[in-house]
Structures are given as C-alpha cells and as structure tokens.
From TrEMBL:
Residue ranges occupied by any N-acetyltransferase domain in the UniProt entry: 15-182
Phylogenetic classification of the source organism: Bacteria, Pseudomonadati, Pseudomonadota, Gammaproteobacteria, Lysobacterales
Protein keywords: Transferase
Name the record gives this protein: RimJ/RimL family protein N-acetyltransferase
Presence of keyword Transmembrane helix: no
Length: 199
C-alpha cells in the first residue's frame, strides 16, 4: 500500500466504515441479497457466488495502493449494509474517486449514504489533502446521479462507451467532482442534512 492511502476506520453516529477483509464475505452476501442488488443492470453488485472474487479484486487494488475498500456498518443495528471505496488514487495530483458503492435495500433512502459520503469526503479533503474528489456513475442511473448532485458535486462530463458491463453492453460514465475550495460549503450542507436524522 502507498504511504498516502492507509487502512483507517471512519465513523459517526450513523455508520462505521471499516477496512474490507475476507471475513466480511458472509455479511456482504447478506447485504447484497437484501433487494437482490445484482439484478440492477446499471450497477455492478456481485452475486453471492461472485462475492469472493469481488472482495479479492478490491483487496488487490488496496494492496497496490490504488484504493481503500470499506464495508459499511450501520450503527443502529450493527449490520453490514454495503460497500464503498476510495479508488483511482493519484497521490501526485492529490485526486481520488469515491465509488464502487452499493447498499442493501433496507439501507437505501436513509442517512447511510449521506453519512458515508460525509466521512469519505472529510477524510479525502481534511486528511489526504485532496485537490479534487471524483464521483462516477452510469449515465442512466438516475437515482445515483440525483444522490451525487444532492451532495453538491459538479458535472464534469460524460465518458461515452467508457466501460463494458457484465452483459456486454457499454456504459456511458457520468463524471462529477468536488474540489477543495468547494468542500467547506458542502461540508456544512452535509452536516445540515445529517442533523435532521439525529434524534
């Protein structure tokens, strides 16, 4: 692993982001099965049979210093409810991408995603001293695009025929970013949103 990305646990009152290990396999299978997420054609959520290979790939990227993969543990009940990652790490240009994110159906439309993004963005800008953070999704994934835009990220453009999907089709990838100068305002925005979820 590079000296830039190091294993770290990030947490707040809503979630804990723990470094991914092979020991999380069964909990991730359970999370992905909540909603049979692998059937969503515009995402890349592994099937139960493919989870071990998915974890191995994420750990290989982490070992090479290109990523830091996390499981998402919901504080409310202690359950692992998904995965997320810092990836495409570029220490020279101080850039990283937040992505490879999916959540169990029961964790969607809750504070979980906002809390995860707040923790990851805070780590990226305040600890890693990033100049910019990217977020990417399928052009046709309207829910993901709306969630990214609610964060305050700006649209950079569309990479057409960017990546081949499991079904052989090509994905048009929509690229958003947040730059360091924008982070203080976005941080206040996210803290405000999360405040509404604290009883």
């Amino acid at each position: 692993m590079s000296a830039w990305l190091q294993p770290v646990t990030l947490e707040d009152v809503h979630v804990a982001l723990e470094p991914l290990t092979r020991a999380h396999h069964d909990a991730l299978v359970e999370a992905a099965s909540d909603g049979a997420l692998w059937n969503l054609w515009f995402t890349s959520v592994p099937t139960p049979e493919g989870m071990a290979a998915y974890i191995d790939e994420a750990l290989a990227d982490t070992a090479q210093g290109a990523a830091q993969a996390f499981v998402v543990r919901r504080k409310q009940d202690g359950r692992v409810v998904g995965c997320t990652r810092l990836g495409h790490a570029d220490a020279v240009n101080r850039r990283v991408e937040i992505g490879w994110t999916w959540y169990a159906a029961s964790a969607q439309r809750s504070a979980v995603n906002t809390a995860c993004k707040r923790l990851l963005l805070g780590h990226a800008f305040e600890t890693l001293q990033c100049a910019a953070v990217e977020l990417r999704t399928h052009r046709l994934n309207r829910r993901s695009r709306a969630a990214i835009e609610r964060l305050g990220a700006q649209l950079d453009g569309v990479l057409r025929n960017h990546r081949r999907m499991d079904d052989g089709s090509y994905r048009d990838t929509v690229v958003y970013s947040i730059i360091d100068a924008e982070w203080p305002a976005i941080r206040r925005h996210l803290d405000h949103l999360l405040g509404a979820h604290v009883s």
